[in-house]
Amino acid sequence: MNTTIWALILSAVSISFIHTASGPDHYLPFIVLSKSKQWSKSKTILLTIACGFGHVLSSLVLGTIGVFMGWQLNKFSWFQEIRGNISGWALLLFGVIYLIYGVIQTIKNKPHKHFDVLGDDVYVYEHNHGEVVMPQSRIKVTPFVLFMIFVMGPSEPLTPLLFYSGLNRSVTEILALVIPFALTTVATMLGMVLLGRYGYSTFFKTDKLERYMSVVSGAVVTICGIGMVFLGW
């Protein structure tokens, strides 16, 4: 495989792992519900995998927009003459913009999801730091609600990488992004859930990393863009 393929694979794996591992909402509900409802190991694994692929699917639906735009743009003959330069610069520009966006969101008191454990039940709600949440604003988490939460929460940084591959009209590059992203997401979720289910989650304190997820993802895309533009990846 050439350097570009390896760069895209590493970017997809990095973004997927950081996005999943840094957010307790990707595994904490499964751990609590599995213990409180006394789910079997197989039921816990199956629900985690289903939600993981639901999360991947929503990310790929969003990413398909990037592929379509890049693929359509590449049909113009005038664009093919400048494609090599503009595709890398487009990736770099998006990475820088997303990095700046992540820094701003980290500084701001942006709304974020929380999961509360009350007895044997888990509730989800969104709020700002310091904001009081009324009981009626919380939603009780069931397996179906949990699945819908993941389906409606895509990973945005995958889109510019797929846009880049769409510009190149490269099915190989698209697969090099999609397959590692999907497998890493599901494997990370499952690993964190099983560690927590058997009492090892205390060794991994990732809740404080969640607010920096957009910054790190933006940095990964930026580094990938720099490599495409300046290093000949």
Automatic annotation (TrEMBL):
Keywords: Membrane, Transmembrane, Transmembrane helix
Source species, domain of life: Bacteria
Keyword Membrane in record: yes
Transmembrane segments: 45-71, 86-104, 144-163, 175-200, 212-231
Protein name from the UniProt record: Sulfite exporter TauE/SafE
